[in-house]
Structure prediction request, 731 residues.
Amino acid sequence: MRTRDIFVSVVMRVRDAAGAIGPALERVAGVMEAHFAYYEIIIVDDCSADASVAEIAAVQARARNIQLYALARRRGDNIALTAGLDHAIGDMIVTLDPLLDPPALIPHLVERALDGVDIVYALPRARLESRGVGNRAVRGFVAALSRLINVDAPQAMSSYRLLNRTVLNYMLEAVDRHRSLMFLPALSGYPYATLEYDRLAGAAGGASTGERLAKAVDLLFSTSARPLRIITLMSLGISVLSLCYALYSVLIYVVRDDVARGWTSLSLQISGLFFLVCIILAVMSEYLLQVLEATTHHPRYHIASQRHSTTMDIARPRNVIATSGAADAFPARSPHDAAAGQPVLQQAIGDGGEVKRAGLDQAKL
Amino acid sequence: MAEPDALVIGGGFYGCCLAIHLRRRFGRVLLVEEADGLLTRASRVNQARLHNGYHYPRSFLTAARSRSNLEVFRRRFPGGVFDDFRHLYAIARADSKVGHRHFERFAAAIGARLEAAGPADRRLFAPRLVEAVYEVVEPAFDVAALRRLLVGRMAESGVEVRTSMRVVRLGAAGAGVAVGFADGTGLRAGWVFNCTYAALNRVVPEAVELRPRLVHQLAEVALITAPPALRRLGITVMDGPFFSAMPFPSEGLHSLTHVRYTPHMSWPEASAPARDPNAVLHPLPSSRFAWMMRDARRYVPALEGAVHVRSLFDIKTLVDGTQGDDARPILFHRDATAPRLVSILGSKLDNIFDVLDTVDETLERA
Prediction:
């Protein structure tokens, strides 16, 4: 089987899941042990208050290749998962939620990746088909954000996915990778495939609405600078309007003689100040954009692959000096002759026949 | 077999050095080794690192002692020291127990040379994971050269050596110690020095609860052909769950070891006192090279080109309670039932000189 030589890292996070995490981890370990010769299971504990860690330690005593990283403070799903990804050593990295996602899919994800894609998203069938508010909201958000930042991502994607090391290396470059974790593979631009699956029966609902909203806001502002651009444009728009209002005030002052005392100066004062404030805002938001770009370290570009021209040799120049056009200007047939002062440098040319042809071409011109 | 004044069990580095040392005092010194050659076990299966202090930034005393031991070692075994490579120490950015400032201050405090690595060397490391790289002076030892040296010296000084001799019984006999071998023969020795490392407690006569409390570890040293960029380099990443890739001079290869993956399993001897620790070597576990290389290449991308040649496995034995720190004291234990049976558990090769003085004191007082 092809999958046996691939080193697979499984990365997952856990928080307050005593009672469920033990059996879940056993399931993952069982699948990995059965299908892969080289693997590791990384589990990050997001500072559980219950017996989750003890339960994981109990599984570690029985099953091989499980590493537990326990965070000192509760930092949320995305940071916990980022900590796991930072420590993964595999050629392919699978992230999943041990309580929601069936590990039996892992070998299939790896098989798909071996067909030559760098990312494989597992799409929960419920999210793909459901007309429920939550699932529609997720799909709608992914679609809208994809359009906004101009990337290609499946609408029903979940955290269950496979990345190969190239994609992970791209993600690890970003300083704020925990904010944009869900979209970073898509931002990398590498080709992906999808697989559908059913979530585990009786699984709890995953993140709460509040958590999802917070993640959505994080995603929107970390993957895209569009909101800031909109501020710039709005500021510019308002400053133009202020200017127009100032001109209007002056015009009214000139053409009408029933203007109330103080109206013109007050109007000019307000419109002038708004103009100034909006220009300042616009300039500052543009600088902020640049600061943001410099500090988040999102790679500007990422080269997916390189190919060299297979004939990238030194081009063989026709080292020929055309003289009068007479054929006898090119008598040299060997380097020795050339060295004897003839105008043809034989060594720059493949064979004598070519010299002749080159000479004739030149001669025709 | 005539009765020796002193019998040394175990032909590792400690056993051989001790036998030569004892020959100054005793007329007949016999060394027996279970395997068919000398220095084939724990003396060979390790990183071949001659510590020069850098490894112990959290234990000033251990570091200072390593440095003085290395000097003595160089004087006593000049041919066994392999210097023909440059050694780089890197400090990991995350998960390291020391930062680069601490490391610099520490090196200055113990008087060890530490130079910031040049740009070419620094480029070998991933800057995201490594915060500083230094060039240090820390050699390796050549176990084959040491073996030749010791065999020569034992012959010169008149130590008798018997290989393929397994001790199966020890017991008090008058003032001395009675020794029984697996082939049915036996002898009586004035003193017996037990230098069998992992098998230290295997045949001693004293009660289980009086024996030194040991913890065993099954350890793997992967031997690799280093990629060209690392051929004449040793690399050690500090200070935590990291790795080292450094020349393994006796084979002309590099050793790759990893704090997380080199120990395959670990168990306190008390959990199975009757079991021979060496039994875990049969059959050998499968190699963890795949794990070691994949983690190591994150820090040093060139290591992806390392070719795994084979792995050496052996038992690493520690005194219980010392796993957490780096102090690695040498165990010196006199048997409760046979006081002229002394068990010595070494740790690092270059620590040998500390124990010879203790042996002298013991013999003088007896």
